[in-house]
Design a protein that fits this description.
Elements: H1 4-7, E1 13-17, H2 22-27, H3 29-38, E2 43-48, H4 50-55, E3 64-67, H5 76-90, E4 94-97, H6 102-110, E5 115-119, E6 130-132, H7 143-153, H8 169-179, E7 184-188, H9 201-215, E8 219-221, H10 228-237, E9 242-244, H11 251-259, E10 261-267, H12 270-277, E11 282-285, H13 291-294, E12 301-304, H14 323-326, H15 330-342
Parallel strand pairs: 1-2, 1-4, 2-3, 4-5, 5-6, 7-8, 7-10, 8-9, 10-11, 11-12
Helix pairs in contact: 3-7, 8-11, 9-10, 9-15
GO biological process, one term: lipopolysaccharide core region biosynthetic process
Family: Belongs to the glycosyltransferase 9 family.
Catalytic activity: an L-alpha-D-Hep-(1->5)-[alpha-Kdo-(2->4)]-alpha-Kdo-(2->6)-lipid A + ADP-L-glycero-beta-D-manno-heptose = an L-alpha-D-Hep-(1->3)-L-alpha-D-Hep-(1->5)-[alpha-Kdo-(2->4)]-alpha-Kdo-(2->6)-lipid A + ADP + H(+)
């Protein structure tokens, strides 16, 4: 690997092309901390889609964000060139490409960023002048280690290796206005990637009811705008008090709510990783996805899954009978939650 463009001079202006999913973006935060530790005086700018950009509006490793809206003003070829021109005017010294797609490398190349560093995924080696080769073993790493290793191979090291998200005082005050003084038990029944990652709503409701009764705790439901119906179904099936915020919050508001929760019960999802970054105890239900590479990077976690002949399949929708999820009973999740709450 050539590191000439990184070793010839200290970069003063760095752009980071972020990943496109909330959960993946959270798992890049140890790498971002390493980048900040290595270049404490540089301006570090996060380039990401509108949702992911919100994660980094307030973050110790990031000075500011640039939004890459491929469904809006940056749509199509014209929008791509508009984004490239915006980057060119910024005169960045270094682009760190955490996103694996060739489009990220092409954008940095067209923007004439002199040093372009990233993994050689998606056939983009020729567009990088600080390439890092990906091996079969690399693909088996937990995602946090995958991104940290990219920077380590570039000679960029530092930070404490922990996930990191932050909220500001106004966001904390807003969360307190919704939750009051109580530390709620949060339930996140959705998963943006697809239905194959979602456990059965009725069982989420059963778990939430039993935990509410056992620990005299209110239940908070979280989720995105496309999951409102799931939230309504769970709330209607429950006997206890529910704060149903599904589809009613921004990314940063979800961050604030989860940061003030005592436990999260969730599918493999973006909010799962958000809670992990705030060191909230998590019970995570896994089915179609690989828990070895995407489980919460935290010690206070219980993974609930069942061995089946077809999981992990990594598919968005189950082509058969969803057995990896139907095999998980409410009692399995309740037992895991009690272990964390009573530890």
């Amino acid at each position: 690997m050539s590191k000439t463009c990184l070793t010839s001079q200290q970069p003063q202006r760095i752009v980071v092309r972020g990943t496109n999913w909330i959960g993946d973006a959270v798992m890049t935060t140890p790498a971002l901390s390493a980048l900040r530790a290595c270049y404490p005086e540089a301006e570090i700018v996060m380039l990401a889609n509108p949702l992911v950009a919100e994660l980094f509006r307030v973050h110790p490793a990031i000075d500011r964000v640039m939004v890459y809206d491929r469904k809006g003003r940056h749509k199509g070829v014209g929008g791509f060139l508009t984004m490239a021109n915006e980057l060119r005017r910024e005169k960045f010294d270094l682009a760190v490409l955490l996103q694996n797609a060739i489009e990220a490398a092409l954008l940095a190349f067209v923007a004439r960023i002199p040093c372009r560093a990233g993994y050689t995924t998606d056939g983009r080696r020729l567009l990088l002048n600080a390439p890092v080769t990906v091996t079969a073993a690399d693909k088996l790493l937990h995602h946090t280690d995958y991104y940290l290793q990219l920077l380590g191979r570039l000679g960029i090291e530092g930070g404490d290796g922990r996930l990191c998200l932050t909220i500001d005082e106004q966001e904390q005050a807003w969360a307190e206005s919704i939750l009051g003084d109580e530390r709620v038990i949060a339930v996140n029944p959705g998963a943006a990637y697809g239905s194959a990652k979602r456990w059965i709503p009725e069982r989420f409701a059963e778990v939430a009811d039993q935990l509410a009764a056992r620990y005299q705790s209110r239940i908070l439901l979280t989720g995105g705008p496309g999951e409102s119906e799931i939230g309504q179904d769970i709330a209607a099936a429950m006997n206890h008090d529910v704060i149903n915020m599904v589809g009613q919050t921004t990314v940063r508001q979800v961050m604030a709510l989860l940061a003030n929760s005592r436990l999260l019960v969730t599918n493999d999802s973006g909010p799962m990783h958000v809670a992990s970054a705030f060191d909230i105890p998590i019970v995570a239900v896994f089915g179609s996805t690989d828990h070895t590479t995407t489980c919460p990077a935290s010690e206070r976690v219980r993974i609930v899954r069942k061995e089946t002949d077809c999981a992990p399949c990594l598919l968005r929708q189950c082509p058969t009978d969803h057995r990896c999820m139907t095999a998980i009973e409410a009692s399995d999740v309740i037992e895991a939650a009690c272990e964390l709450l009573e530890k």
